[in-house]
Amino acid sequence: MLDLNPAAQEVIRLVGGVADDQLTAPTPSTDTSVAALLDHLMGLALAFTWAARKSGGEGPGGSVPPPPPSGANLAPEWRTVLPARLTGLVDAWRQPDAWTGMATAGGVTMPAEVMGVVALDELVLHGWDLAKATSQPFHCDPASTEAVLAFTAESARPEQAANREGLFGPVVPVPADAPALDRALGFAGRDPGWTPPAR
Known about the structure:
The protein is 48% helix and 4% strand.
């Protein structure tokens, strides 16, 4: 079992630092605004909570893939709802049963212990995206960094190309002696040195 709380708390902190005039700003994810990223976080928080509880059914937590994230769909009360959903996500994955059997999220079914790692990966990578897009510092605890690095490094193996489709962009070369988080970002198709364009 991994503890998703440190990564979730970092996202919650970052959400509190987003200004209204930053919602249209670009993020490291191509063609994704801050508002669209927040909409994605809103959806994935629910989807992975339902996955942990094995209670998704139809919809974003179950067998139906979610719609593409869109700033136009961002709920007006996101500043309060998103932290609450992230707290629920952490609580759901703190239950031992969450890590057993199979779990489904976003139309994908996989072993629950892998789904938990995917949930952590989403929190860390999109937390970093949000931090970069809004010019905030980003902190990732060592255990989360290690887990995400292992996951993204495995996804970057040539034989994983088909599974990687739609999840990560092309691998960004990062020096082998770079910090662990930078290497994880590179394997996930992100440039650790990305900065928002001048506005």
